[in-house]
Amino acid sequence: MQPKKIFFFAAFFALVMGNRQVYAQQDKGGDLLKLLDDSLKQQEAQPEAVTSIFKATQVINLPTVEQPGKNNLQFIIMHRFGKLNGGAYELFGLDNATIRFGLDYGLTDRLAIGVGRSSLDKTFDASLKYKLLQQRTKGLPFALSLNGWITNKTVKYPDKPYMNAKYRTSYTTQILLARKFSKRLSFEVVPTWVHYNLVPTPEDQNDILVVGLGGRMKITNRISVNAEYDLLPGSPLPSQNIKPSFGLGVDLETGGHVFQLVFSNSQGIVGPSYLTQTEGTWGNGDIYFGFNISRAFGWNKHKKK
Question: pTM surpassing 0.85?
Fold first, then answer.
């Protein structure tokens, strides 16, 4: 019961019972004050949702549990230059670039959909993210979301006429398990399943398991340092020299924008590209510098009172 309702109920009760003896009124008043005090304590004890576990929808490439709220739209640009070990001739990678444009929209506070287009392999993607659990200050110590991608490469292969849309399509399913340990530290574990409709050789596996790890350390109110690592157990693609994806970044929050400076050994940005197609290593200087920029727009309608 809300305190305001309790107050009006007390006034009405006192008016009706005014002909009762004074000591009875005092007893009732004491009961009401106790009820009011108990109600306030219950409200204070209710666990609150933990927000801003991560500042953006990506750690670097790895998705986070964050997503647009209901009727909110996010526009994101993910840009990667070439390898730093390209040297001065390639201007340390700045002569080359890979880019993705994406739109994510919140159908509800729990369900969001997204579409995007990457220049690498001319890839289109669509995603669906659903928030199952929200971390709370008491009771529930973590957040849990499901994230699914479908990607389709449209780059032309003149020497492979059999490469129709079916063989160009792959699927990525992720469980996003995250926890905000303090105001500064957040961490997530992302078990991932990737399915290819077509792989290069019969020895390669169509279904691949990956374990992603991501973390965020807040430095100031507007700056944080991020890191992610994607572990690929075993050798599911023996025909390719696949390496684990590792990235570092810095988040800069500027009002409605989140600007992320990133370094990664993955040229790919979405879905299976960075999870199962990374061939570079940090030790050899195969590092791609880039940035993510996200901008949120809201269309929540507020009724005039």
Answer: no
Residues near 64 by beta carbon (within 8 Å), at least 6 away in sequence: 53, 54, 56, 57, 58, 176, 178, 188, 214
Q: Please choose, from the candidates 255, 247, 257, 174, the residue with its C-alpha nearest in 3D space to the C-alpha of residue 216.
A: 247
Tokens 């019972």 — which residue? 17
User: Quick one: tokens of 174?
Assistant: 């992720």
Write the CA distances from 250 to 14, 46, 229, 258, 261, integer angstroms.
62, 34, 15, 10, 5
pLDDT at 34: 53
pLDDT in the model for residue 123? 93
Q: What is the Cα–Cα distance from 188 to 200, expressed in whole angstroms?
A: 32
| Residue 221 DSSP class | S
**Are the CB atoms for 279 and 243 separated by under 8 Å?**
yes
The CA angle 119-159-268, to the nearest 5 degrees, is 25
Residue 212: both structure tokens together = 């992603």
**Looking at residues 234-245, what average pLDDT do you find?**
87
DSSP characters over 40-102: HHHHHHSPPBP--SSSSSBSSSSB-S----TTEEEEEEEEEEEEGGGTGGGGGGTT-EEEEEE
CB 176, CB 63: distance < 8 Å? yes
**C-beta atoms surrounding 241 within 10 Å:** 10
DSSP 165: T
Taking the C-alpha atoms of residue 269 and residue 289, their distance in angstroms, rounded to an integer, is 12
Task: State the greatest distance between any 2 C-alpha atoms of the chain, in Å, as a whole number.
Answer: 100
Q: Give the list of residues 6+ apart from residue 159 with CB closer than 8 angstroms, or none.
A: none
Kindly tell me the sign of the dihedral angle through the C-alpha atoms of 228, 233, 234, 236: negative
Which pLDDT belongs to residue 31?
A: 54
